[in-house]
Amino acid sequence: NYLLGVGRADCTGPVAEVPLMGYANPEQVSGGILTHLYSRAFIVADLDDSRRIVFVSADIGMMSQKVRLEVLKKLKSKYGDLYRQDNVILSGTHTHSGPGGYFQYTLFWITSKGLIRPTLNAIVNGIVKSIDIAHDNMKRGRLFINRGTVENSQINRSPFSYLENPASERSRYSSNTDKEMVMLKMVDEHGEDLGLISWFAVHPVSMNNTNHLVNSDNVGYASYLFEQEKNKGMLPGEGSFVAAFASSNLGDVSPNTRGPFCANTGESCDNPQSSCPIGGATMCMATGPGKDMFESTRIIGKNIYSKAWELYEKASQEITGPLSSAHQWVNMSDVTVELNATHTVKTCKPALGHSFAAGTIDGVGAFNFTQGSVEGDPFWDQIRDQLLGEPSNETKACHEPKPILFSTGEMTKPRPWHPDIVDVQIVTIGSLAIIAVPGEFTTMSGRRLREAVQKEFDSHGAPRTHVVIAGLCNVYTHYIATYEEYQVQRYEAASTIYGPHTLSAYIQLYRGLARAIATNTTQDLPCGPEPPLFSIGNLTLLPALSAERAPANKTFGDVLQEVKQQYQVGGVAEVTFVGANPRNSAENATEHNFLTVERYANISDSWHVVQNDASWDTRFYWTKGSQGQSTVKIQWHIPHDTEPGIYRIQYLGHYKKRLSLFRTITVPFGGTSSTFEVT
């Protein structure tokens, strides 16, 4: 028995003009919302409350060091030493459709237009709020674990790298991806459902890099389905049951199960270069099982949800036993690894290889500067001078055979480009060990790490029957490929930033943490060098929010294009309004709802909200026009189980109004469509 608490809070942030974080494509800027993003928190404590563990899974691309340090600072001021570096795991789901700009290292500023304070604040405050809610709702309860295989939901996107691993090792596994889902079920002492955490290795990239709507992708859709089912009658994002679908060793795992094909000719480009005869690598794209990215997201998400539901219903193996946690900061650019009794190797200063710029079959190349641009970009000019620095011979030699594109470890202006100080962390709950890793381990890297940690626990007489990897935790350090995969330098290897021995270093470090937990000596672990927390001003290229205008003889929220009078289920109701910049709303409130779908109730002669902007059935598009004007288009993709009746769609926004030369205020407004019938 434990004390358990669960919480969910909004962490969406601005849904317009902000680059989305994941594909590193500067063109992929948000222009609306498909679903909200949430932070989901789970607290486990002993009955005497002597020890606590916090696990957070947030619908964001990855955790950043800045987010983690700011969250821990806030927790310390609220709760003292209750929630600390060692017992709080912050993990990102790795959706590629969330707002960027929440990093303190320069490399990540490039594609996200600097540091974007509203994004950072939304994530930090959302995570803290979800922990607050879990903290305030602690009750006695029980934990159950279950595991099972998820089919038809992933492919290995670098199969040629995977084949470099020794045949003897590959022969132990039936697949080149990890198909196993591990599911932790939480109930209170009366058996009432509280929530669940699922760990499964797949990239949330069913939504591709042409998408401009903020959303939580396939794993977010799985959370949505589970929570809607358990929180009956509630709108999305409401209700007490919390279902987290967390990331794992997804480094080389894609949900785009049809595999890679040339966009121009339709032929397969499943080759070591992922290249097409015409158009090269930029034409090679993998697609999902659906007819478009929205359908693919739902198919993969539903597969993941269905397996979790089955595992949840049947979970009978109880988790009991003490809680423990171990954490260290490590300078990953300078770790000496003992491969065996006679042989030591070292990690390197961070650097990215040429293939990093090529991207993957899920999202091709990032850094395509446009030609013929007559205006310089002050941001790039400052950085260009920095880019010309050549990697040192030492770094070149250390990273062999990687040809270095960006020697980020030797680039320090205006701030360091990549982290040196990285978190390694393990928490254990009875027979479950959660390894919190700072990046994207490939399938085989994850298998080696889990096995090494399991062996360490076993050899000290403290077996842990379940060892799971939680991905994208605490700080982002790109990919971790095996030494063998590193030799062929596909994207994952080129993005293994601390050199060919990165994985061996992590295995050595995590074995040390496991040993400390098994032998009850965590208090003797050295903390390691503390990471820097840079105070960064407003370094951003986001356009300033200025006064807005409605077209002549119109006002904000007026309908420009009306709904039809009647729709059938399965159809799409659509209405266009005079709009305003959605960023005005995000700067005003932490959780703004941009739309409602409402049904008319005859008996009470009133309107009832049946959907909001967190629903996967609604889409909110914002289009910026000229001279301070913009439009908003709202779609409702009417589900087949919709009750026939009279409906309307409402739009809720804020516009900037100029009061004087130097002063603007933000004014809320709303608009409503005509009524329409659903048959």
Would you mind describing this structure in some detail?
With 679 residues, the chain is an alpha+beta fold. Among the domains are: 2-322 and 437-467, no CATH class; 558-678, Immunoglobulin-like. 22% of the residues lie in helices and 30% in strands. It has 14 helices and 38 strands. Strands 1, 4, 5, 6, 8, 10, 11, 12 and 16 form a 9-stranded mixed beta sheet that branches. A 7-stranded antiparallel beta sheet has the order 7-2-3-34-35-31-29, with no helix packed on it. β11 (193-199), α6 and β12 form a beta-alpha-beta unit. α6 (217-230) packs across α7 (293-314). The chain is globular, with a radius of gyration of 25 Å. It starts with a strand and ends with a strand. Zn(2+) binds at residues 94, 203, 440, 479. Residues 511-678 form the Neutral/alkaline non-lysosomal ceramidase C-terminal domain.
User: Mean pLDDT score, rounded?
Assistant: 93
Radius of gyration: 25 Å
Low-confidence stretches: 366-378
**Sheet with the most strands?**
9 strands, mixed
Number of helices: 14
| Structural class by sheet pairing and helices | alpha+beta
Percentage of residues in helical conformation: 10-25%
Shape: globular
Residue share in β-strands: 25-35%
| DSSP strand tally | 38
Distance between the termini: 51 Å
